Amino acid sequence: MRIFKGGELIVIKELIVIGCGGQAKVVVDLVEQLHSFQIIGFFDDYKIEPEFMGYPVLGKVEDIKKYNGIYYGGIVAIGDNWSRKKIVRRIQEMDPKFRYVTLCHPEAIVSQRAEIGEGTAVMAGAVVNTDVKVGHHCIINTLGSVAHDCVVGDYASVGPGAHLGGHVQIGEHSAISIGARVLHGITIGQDTIIGAGATVTHHITDRVIAYGVPAKVIRSREKDEPYL
Ligand SMILES: CC(=O)SCCNC(=O)CCNC(=O)[C@H](O)C(C)(C)COP(=O)(O)OP(=O)(O)OC[C@H]1O[C@@H](n2cnc3c(N)ncnc32)[C@H](O)[C@@H]1OP(=O)(O)O
After folding, report:
1. At the fourth CATH level, which superfamily is domain 103-215?
2. Which terminal residue of the chain has fewer beta carbons within 10 Å of its beta carbon, N or C?
3. What is the ipTM of this complex?
4. Ligand 1 midpoint to CA 227 (Å)
């Protein structure tokens, strides 16, 4: 879609959103504030109502293929990291050329020297500093911060108000929960959850749940255990 605003040609790209939950709500709000995309609808396996947030629910994930070609790209807006990956894989099988958008809220601060992967959303008030690499399909949530030289793996998330010091590495699918802090130079493995409010002072291995101040590994994380 092309519109003229103040004599200037603006190209609005059509976007689909996968998911109709809390993450989708925040993504819609972000998209509306960007004024660069037109949401054409949602796809969700469980939503039966015809509309969500004033946009049509067009079907289940498998129905995306019926709409092939009428949208520019999409985003999987599902908060649970493993669930988000499963949906991305299903879409990949249906349409290997499906294009994902990268969304940064207009009030996020993202260094021009940071790399942000496709399908990733950077929410309001988040800060992503210089020489950071954020992978594909990540979430950098409201007021979260990622200091210089961090690496955030694909499908990982930095929760609301969580902070990463410089040179922190977060493994794929791992979640740094709301209000947690990770000291500079720390490595967090894959599939791990750092609980709300934790302060991480030592490296944390793969597939565990750790929390507290200082954070301790409390237990291992079961395969497919959801992140709430
Ligand atoms: C926009 C958004 O909403 S984004 C949302 C992002 N989500 C979050 O930030 C949620 C983060 N979740 C947590 O921190 C969770 O508590 C988890 C994942 C760490 C839970 O871990 P579990 O081992 O399953 O904890 P469980 O719920 O069984 O609780 C076990 C005990 O640990 C305590 N506990 C749980 N989480 C924490 C924590 N983060 N810090 C300190 N203690 C905790 C519980 O109070 C409970 O104590 P009790 O036995 O004395 O009652």
Report:
1. Hexapeptide repeat proteins (2.160.10.10)
2. C
3. 0.96
4. 10
